[in-house]
Amino acid sequence: MKRIPRPSALLMAATLATAGIAANYAWAQVDAAKSSVTATARQIGVPMEGKFKKFDATVAFDPAKLATSSAKVEIDVSSFEIGDAETTKEVKGRDWFDAAKYPKAVFQSTSIKAGAAGKYEVAGKLTIKGKTQDVVIPASYRQDAGGQVFEGVLPIKRTVYNIGDGEWKDTSVVADDVQIKFRIVTLAKK
């Protein structure tokens, strides 16, 4: 019997893609030590969380110039970790992320707009495992002493991106819903 990969791993890629709204025009470098992207899904009803260790973001964000703000996030799906070596290996395999064939998950913004309650709506294209979907990511923004902080949660369906092919398409064991949570911190340009 195959081990069941933890669903968070599968959608973590999407999470990092969400993290793409990270830097003001005066703030460009992402502080990887303070930034994170996680994915949480349910396996047999139990929440499981995984983390992507490597991602890169190209961002230009200015709350006074939203029309010209943009973000692109690339996530190295082979950097995913769920806490168990065997499960982590399985999730990188063909039925889940297929990291050998699709090494990156990518989010590219198409627009950023002011939303409700001081949040921003970041619309864009999310590509995971060769499948591209339009998404809107609700994100909060605040300035910090040394940079900017962007946080949010993007709900996605893993089956839309063919994460969990073959026998794993059955959502009774690994739920279809995944929450991608991100925290992106930028540093001031020097």
TrEMBL record:
Keyword Signal: yes
SMART domains: YceI
Signal peptide residue numbers: 1-28
Domain of life where this protein originates: Bacteria
Name of the protein in its database record: Putative signal peptide protein
Domain Lipid/polyisoprenoid-binding YceI-like: 27-187
Keyword match Transmembrane: no
Keyword entries, A-Z: Signal
InterPro entries: Lipid/polyisoprenoid-bd_YceI, TTHA0802/YceI-like_sf
